[in-house]
Design brief:
Chain lengths: ~190, ~190
DNA sequence: CGCGACGTTGATTTGCCTCAACGATTGTGG
DNA sequence: CCACAATCGTTGAGGCAAATCAACGTCGCG
């Protein structure tokens, strides 16, 4: 049941009646994504907000020198989108790619706006989710400045062991902001 | 009129009637802050959310080695708080210090909760503000990974010239995540 | 089987840090 | 208002973290 996971996720953020939950869930459509498939590519407009039910995604940017910089990975129970492009319908700087066979629930912008209008608890839900996200991004930035590559690596595998298992070293290095060669050298020394 | 600035700031995010604006503003209290004064120190709980009317603040963390890492600067028309500590009433990892004689409007957590309950447009307002903030933090992280120190410096002074003018090089280096000695060397070459 | 992506390793270079010293500026107390 | 201290910006020498480039064996997949 993909919707059960979504309902549980919502309830982690706000208390809500079963009927409200049902109501919200109706707006989300399940879709399957093949390994390697892109849900979004840089330069396009992000037309959806998604909730991962199964599988794994990588959200990353490719800079002018061709370097891939991974913003985050989204596995089961994570949300995924380019929030900037989705909100403002502007050209996205991000790519969203499935790293394995995956399943997600998506909602498009029109339905999202409808949801906001129909139920003020939805405003609250996404207000809280966004505020938590801000806090998380701030802490991530502090860690990135304060820790060396090896410490960031340890932090990542300790904090998200189940995600780390799904990833290649190259993918992890793109998240840490280092080269894959250097990650290999880090791992060698213990 | 400190409240006029706040009202204009709010209107940048959501359309709202003058009476709603008035209603919201009533919950904010103006306070003056002396240069050097701390509104928040690491280890304490953030008891307020603030909107800067005048002056300049620095929001930073001090890590275990004593290095100061600046998350952001808040000048006129910016919001300021430790969102994590304020939401969850947990111990803060941030310091908020006035860099000059300043004036802000603050609201405490109880009043904020009241506001949310009384008016669903407030939910929407802070939902949108938070979503914009998420987008901004994500882009900041990408820049931090993709750009070299010199490029980050150029980006900062070009994007926030009026803030850069108020700051010492040491403060800027703490924001860029480099030492002040290295910033000095960057500036020399060109 | 063969090809492409992967992880590894070494040699070299580069970006940035550390430490130390100095003069210039700012702030402060007498 | 001055004298002194503190903080600031600058510079240099040296060191370390991480990038770059190149080569190699391995593995999974078509």
């Amino acid at each position: 049941m993909p919707y059960q996971l979504l309902q549980e996720n919502i309830l982690k953020n706000v208390k809500m009646s079963p009927s409200d939950l049902e109501f919200i869930c109706k707006y989300f459509k399940p879709i399957s994504v093949n390994k390697g498939e892109f849900l979004l590519q840089q330069g396009n407009i992000c037309k959806f907000e998604g909730f991962v039910v199964k599988g794994c995604f990588r959200i990353f940017n490719i800079d002018t020198e061709g370097k891939e910089n991974t913003l985050y990975f989204a596995v089961k129970d994570w949300w995924l989108m380019d929030i900037d492009s989705f909100m403002n319908q502007t050209s996205s700087e991000l790519n969203i790619q499935a790293l394995e066979e995956s399943q997600i629930l998506i909602i498009d912008r029109t339905n999202k706006e409808t949801l906001y209008k129909e139920s003020s608890i939805v405003e609250k839900l996404f207000r809280i989710m966004s505020q938590k996200a801000v806090a998380a991004w701030q802490r991530r930035l502090i860690r990135n400045h304060g820790l060396k590559a090896k410490e960031r690596y340890s932090y990542f595998v300790n904090t998200y062991p189940e995600i780390a298992l799904k990833l290649t070293d190259r993918q992890i290095s793109g998240y840490l902001g280092i080269t894959h060669e250097f990650l290999s050298k880090i791992k060698r020394k213990n």
